[in-house]
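so im writing up the methods section and need the 1,2-phenylacetyl-CoA epoxidase subunit A record in one place, dumping it here so i stop losing it
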Amino acid sequence: MYTQAMDTMGKDGADAQGADAPRPLRSADELALQERFDARIDAGDFIEAKDWMPDHYRKTLVRQISQHAHSEIVGMLPEGNWISRAPTLKRKAILLAKVQDEGGHGLYLYAAAETLGTSRDQLLHALHTGKAKYSSIFNYPTLTWADMGTIGWLVDGAAIMNQVPICRCSYAPYARAMIRICREESFHQRQGYEALLTMMQQGTEAQKAMVQDAVNRWWWPCLMMFGPPDDQSPNSAQSMRWGIKRVSNDELRQKFVDATVEQAKVLGVTLPDPDLKWNEERGHWDFGTIDWDEFWRVVGGDGPCNRERLGARVKAWEDGAWVREAALAHANKQAMKEAA
Ligand code: FAQ
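--- predicted struct ---
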């Protein structure tokens, strides 16, 4: 009786709806598991790796967590570009530590994605072949030293705004990784702001102009980091229902604008948006229209640095082949010794 099919859509129902469509329920056992899972989500429980979960929930998590992990390691490249040219030993040490932190974030996140049954090799293969996405923001170039401060202030600032709610994500291994990541990101944001404040308060006119130019170039791409508007975000509704996302793309973007306008005033820079205006009625800052064509172009692989970034990651993977081979040979040797 329990094996009787409960699939009312026929064998190909899921395929007909597209590969990502939720699979219809197959059995009474599965229905019971699904009901228990839904009740746990509704009650705000956390789901652990060993717990039953619907395929679509698992797939959505692998998609988001792996994109997030890829963003962290691709995100090392724009700042890595300036380690050898940092203006002082103190700034170099801070930048080195920050870039290293981003690598660590990538590792926590790959580990969280692996708990869902997808191997690190599979995840990286998807990145290297252009099948997996990573954040659009890292496809923009870092032209001056002021870009380092601006990335810390705005890019890490946007990242924190988006990531603090993920500390309450319904999938516990992801939520746990995010708690640690957010602590580190908050140091990153402060060091960026402090670097800019130093240039704005103690710098030459040329240095102040350099900060303003960096803010002009990074502002709009940072607003794009939060993803498409809610009414054009195909994944949001389901991810919010499952508690993977807790706050919507547009709400987070607005929160970021509201917080950043005040910080810009203290810094003494102008945000490059003539439509930025306080809206008394809404209790929020209104802002101008985002160039979504640019966003989709960059996400689609045609941003200023997409090819360079992917090329650098593929080269790092190929150059590191000998390390993986050596580690495997060592592991095999140890296993043989133990077996003997
Ligand atoms: N770039 O339906 P939605 C950082 C894609 S880490 C590229 O709204 P979703 C730290 C999206 O994947 C920054 N693609 O999607 C750092 C989807 O495509 P798919 C990364 C984007 O998942 C700082 C399609 O558009 N943070 O900065 C972007 O519900 C400094 C439709 O979008 C995270 O990954 C984008 N900006 O919401 C490192 C946080 N936006 O997969 C170094 C976790 C959307 O269907 C230096 N992720 N897309 O083919 C999230 O919160 C979500 O995944 C969103 C997108 C909000 C990014």
